[in-house]
Amino acid sequence: MLPKILVFAGSNRTGAYSKKVANAAVKTLAELGADVTLIALFDYPLPLMDEDLEEKQGIPDNAMKLGRLFAAHDGMLIASPEYNSSIPPLLKNTIDWVSRISKDGDKPLRPYSGKVVGLCSSSEGNFGGARGLYHLRSVLMNVGTQIITEQCSVIHAHEAFAEDGSFRNERTAKSMERVCQSLIDHTRFAKSRA
């Protein structure tokens, strides 16, 4: 059975490099034999995480939709920009809301349980957003995911992509391939142990 991988970018900005990285990941994962679903967080708007709001109104519908999507996939690949050497607020808010989910109606729902995650980043600078991935790893470990070691950080993202969306730099393309193959291998292993 093909591993089911959910892919999304941590930015909604028009022309965001992280969206281009997510698209490149989708193509690579599919070529390597994964069943891939690409979503945009823009389609799941959420209020700022607020426990008072949660107590009054419950988990927002869009957080529940995302939680069900996360739970329905074997693994995830997140393409994140770097904001001041850390996680963009859109992505952190999404992770936090989904982490509040413990049930779906009367059924237990643990969106992050057993989830294998691959990480990519991008920026116009020389580090390619890699500094933000340290923080993202920490947050994702705390919610119970298994993060693979390999990661792909796209440096000089403003000039990294060809018109067809592929990477101009062969080294970056190989890095993405390593991340995607490792994610597929780890999700298969995790499924075999479940």
From TrEMBL:
Residues 3-157 form the NADPH-dependent FMN reductase-like domain. Signal peptide: none annotated. GO terms for cellular component: cytosol. GO terms for molecular function: FMN binding; oxidoreductase activity. Transmembrane segments: none annotated. This is NAD(P)H-dependent oxidoreductase. It comes from Phyllobacterium pellucidum.
